[in-house]
Write a structure and sequence with these properties.
alpha/beta, TIM Barrel, Alpha-Beta Plaits, eight-stranded parallel beta sheet, four-stranded antiparallel beta sheet, 18% strand, globular, binds flavin mononucleotide
Length: 392
């Protein structure tokens, strides 16, 4: 059975799946509940110089169900920093896992609170960089001089092109980089009442959960090619397979907020069990073995990046989409979504499987991803050989 323990920045975590800063870690007792639910470490709610006046309507489920994204305008901790320094961190530390205090936002605030949090016994500090008035690397440099515990910089995705530059500038002063914070501002409108839904001036909120996972993965992958410190993936993690994807992109651990809000602390046991099963099924003994497997396998280096990363194109030779008749149920879902009329269901001539017109197939790949029974296949990276052939 795979051993999920990970050692990062000199700290031993029970597993690489932790709560992210958010309402699920809004005080010490909540943090203990996260750990009881199976989290391998804990990040606390962000604190700042004063308690936040959190707007009234500040969390919105974007489509009913646990797979949906979320809009929020929650701000930082509703507790004053003294409450954390005198009580909540001590309670959180009773959970017995590494506890990471989250700090915002100006250089002066971060340095002052960082010193006090270190004195309160937390194991590491995470700094949210997006509201800092100073250059984020200056904040990190000042904090580095002020404390001796590990520092993690948490990146915002707002200008993805500059995130990597920023991370590279901060790297000399930090022990790890977490990516990403929620994305926005975004907007939803209550059309019946012609009103705001989120309680900010214009109803703006920030997007999190599964919809931001591809952006978070892209940033983690770019970071993995650009910095040497460990990366913590955050954004849309919902399953053990999501954790595997983040580890392969280059993260050494992940944090979870939205899924954690929808499902509660029990999500950690479920997700770490799924992770363990995946590792066992694929003959890996530790999550460490797959960290950065993707950039390694496709041979991607930072200096080869074109800045946007979409210039390169894979020109496919060989057959277009192929169907596995054992799996196909002839349901026709792929037919409806094929804009090239390359697929059809004809139960008379082909009772077992959908028919593919190879002349018409444009190899767009959409049918492969809409098929509910994984019956369609379009191979892209054949030249790399079977997965697992290259290991970091
Ligand atoms: C309601 C809510 C409150 C959040 N509060 C904080 C916070 O105080 N500090 C912070 O750095 N990030 C905060 N975040 C961002 C999350 O930590 C995380 O980076 C983001 O939501 C992406 O992860 P997810 O898709 O798993 O939610 C918050 C997110 C949500 C949804």
């Amino acid at each position: 059975m795979a051993d999920l323990r990970v050692n990062l920045f000199g700290l031993e975590f029970g597993n690489p799946v932790w709560p992210a800063a958010g309402p699920n870690v809004h005080n010490g007792d909540m943090i203990k509940r996260q750990v009881a639910g199976g989290a391998g470490g804990a990040v606390c709610k962000t604190i700042s110089s004063e308690a936040a006046a959190v707007p009234k309507f500040h969390m919105m489920n974007l489509a009913k169900g646990r797979k949906a994204g979320m809009l929020n305008c929650e701000l930082w901790s509703e507790l004053p920093p003294d409450a954390w320094l005198e009580r909540e961190y001590a309670i959180a530390l009773e959970a017995g896992v590494p506890v990471i205090a989250s700090l915002g936002y100006t250089l002066e605030e971060v340095v002052r609170l960082g010193r006090l949090a270190e004195r309160a016994g937390v194991h590491a500090l995470e700094v949210t960089v997006h509201y800092a008035k100073e250059e984020p690397w200056q904040v990190m440099r000042a904090l580095r001089e002020a404390v001796s515990i590990p520092i993690i910089a948490k990146m915002s995705p707002h200008d993805p092109a500059t995130v990597i530059d920023l991370a590279v500038k901060m790297e000399p002063f930090v022990d790890g980089i977490a990516a990403i914070n929620s994305l926005g501002p975004c907007l939803r409108i209550d059309i019946e009442n012609q009103q705001r839904i989120m309680g900010t001036d214009y109803g703006y909120g920030w997007l999190s959960g599964p919809p931001i996972k591809p952006l978070a993965l892209r940033i983690v992958f770019d970071l993995a090619r650009s910095v040497k410190v460990p990366i913590i993936g955050v954004g849309g993690v919902r399953t053990g397979r999501d954790v595997v994807e983040f580890l392969m992109a280059g993260a050494s651990a992940v944090q979870i907020c939205t899924t954690n809000i929808y499902e509660g602390p029990a999500c950690f046991k479920r997700i770490t069990t799924e992770l363990e099963q995946w590792l066992d099924e694929h003959d890996y003994e530790s999550p460490r073995e797959i960290v950065g497997a993707y950039p390694l396998r496709i041979g991607a280096k930072a200096d080869e990046a074109d800045g946007v990363g979409t210039k390169g194109r894979v020109h496919l030779e060989g057959p277009p989409v192929q169907v596995d008749p054992q799996r196909c149920t002839n349901c026709g879902i792929c037919v409806t979504s094929c804009m090239h009329d390359a697929l059809c269901v004809d139960k008379e001539t082909s009772p077992e499987a959908v028919i593919i017109n190879e002349q018409r197939c444009f190899s767009c790949g959409l049918c492969v991803t809409v098929c509910p029974s994984a019956a369609l296949k379009l191979e892209l990276d054949k030249q790399l050989g079977p997965a697992g052939a290259i290991r970091p």
